[in-house]
Design a protein that fits this description.
Blueprint (H helix, E strand, L loop, with lengths): L3 E2 L26 E8 L3 E9 L10 H5 L2 E3 L2 E5 L5 E4 L1 H14 L7 H14 L11 E10 L11 E11 L10 E5 L17 H5 L2 H9 L4 E5 L7 E4 L2 E7 L2 E4 L10 H12 L3 E4 L4 H9 L5 E6 L3 E10 L2 E4 L7 H14 L10 E4 L1
Parallel strand pairs: 1-3, 9-10, 9-16, 13-14
Antiparallel strand pairs: 2-3, 2-8, 4-7, 5-6, 5-7, 6-18, 7-8, 10-11, 11-12, 12-13, 12-15, 15-16, 16-17
Helix pairs in contact: 2-3
This protein binds 2-OXO-4-methylpentanoic acid (COI).
Length: about 350
């Protein structure tokens, strides 16, 4: 499908943040966005890259009432030699359609997802930061825009992509975060939407997150929705626990997100001499193992969060400091290797990098 590029008037061009180390996460957006529509009978149509601007939408649109929405998150990196790299974007294209299928939304041809992003990022390449720890965050989104109040799948959708130059997701940067295991609220249940990347999962996590923040934690770690016993994920990250040289994470059970970074850690770790294990993790056993000194490190993984060390983990009345509150050796090694591949400092033996242009 041809993507029209609409002119960008000079007075619509924004000023870029000068100090890339002050970017934070998701606060600034580039000059242009990609928009493709889907209408019953016409399928995907009217693809265009246009100046970034607010949408004018009917207040009755389905997305506002029943939350028919999905999104993705991936990053573009500017390499020292000037090339622009995307990291495993095919995985995001596939997951986008898996999320869409759960929400009864039309499948987007993966080629359109990929070429649309590539064309947009190529046009906006001046926005890709290059300071250490920065990148261009890409946010593909699909929303239901049919104005009708009946609960049903929409007959009209907007697929759009916006770009945001970012630094670290957590304000503290690559530093250990404090996590509270949530023992009351749940994020997902078997058969629910936990595996889909849909806004509702994040909306329903806000209350627990705010309550934990008031107590001084950065995030909550969700337990399974049936027994509140097995470790699931932190909303913005999958979780890993290090036992000696073995790295353990929860299995993809249908209620946690199938993270691209999670998958990358599972593939990278064995090449660095670590064993990996995907198995149900009982929170009581985990805490007994931490108490017994068997768990040396814990970290989260995510596109925005990259690899985030966990320095403190609490459950009910029990709190543990991990790795003396510092970044663990294995966590650091995985972070260095993953970001090294993403930024072109280390060789990509996996074929994970897709260059633009
Ligand atoms: C991402 O890591 O890309 C996400 O979508 C998580 C979000 C909480 C920023």
């Amino acid at each position: 499908m041809e993507i029209r590029v609409l002119p960008l008037p000079a007075d619509r061009m924004k000023t870029k943040v000068r100090d890339e180390l002050q970017l934070g996460f998701g606060k600034y957006f580039t000059d242009r966005m990609l928009l493709v529509e889907w209408k019953t009978g016409r399928e995907w149509c009217d693809a265009r890259i246009e100046p970034y601007a607010p949408f004018v939408l009917d207040p009755a649109c389905l997305v506002f009432h029943y939350g028919q929405e999905i999104f993705e998150g991936l990053k573009a990196y500017k390499w020292a030699d000037g090339r622009i790299a995307l990291f495993r974007p095919e995985m995001n294209a596939r997951r986008f359609n898996q999320s869409g299928a759960r929400l009864c939304m039309p499948a987007l041809p993966e080629e359109l997802f990929l070429t649309g992003i590539e064309q947009l990022v190529a046009l906006e390449k001046a926005w890709i930061p290059s300071a250490p720890g920065t990148s261009l965050y890409i946010r593909p989104t699909l929303i239901a825009v049919e104005p009708v109040l009946g609960v049903k799948p929409s007959e009209h959708y907007y697929f759009y992509v916006i770009l945001s130059p970012v630094g670290a997701y957590y304000a503290a940067g690559f530093n250990p975060v404090a996590i509270l295991v949530e023992d009351y609220y749940v994020r997902a249940v078997p058969g629910g939407t936990g595996e889909a990347k849909t806004g509702g999962n994040y909306a329903s996590s806000l209350k627990a997150g705010l309550e934990a923040k008031k107590k001084g934690y950065d995030q909550v770690l969700w337990l399974d929705g049936r027994e509140r016993r097995f470790i699931e994920e932190v909303g913005a990250m999958n979780m890993f626990f290090v036992y000696g040289t073995k790295i353990v994470t929860a299995p993809l059970n249908g209620s946690i997100l199938s993270g691209v970074t999670r998958d990358s850690v599972l593939k990278l770790a064995p090449t660095l001499g670590y064993q990996v294990e995907e198995r149900p993790i009982d929170v009581n056993e985990l805490f007994a193992d931490i108490k017994a000194g068997k768990v040396s490190e814990a970290f989260g993984s995510g596109t925005a969060a990259v690899i985030t060390p966990v320095g403190k983990l609490c459950y009910k009345d029990e709190c543990h400091q991990l790795t003396g509150g510092r970044v663990g050796e294995i966590t650091q090694k995985l972070y260095d290797t993953l970001t090294g591949i993403q930024t072109g400092k280390l060789q990509d033996d996996f074929g994970w990098i897709r260059f633009i242009g």
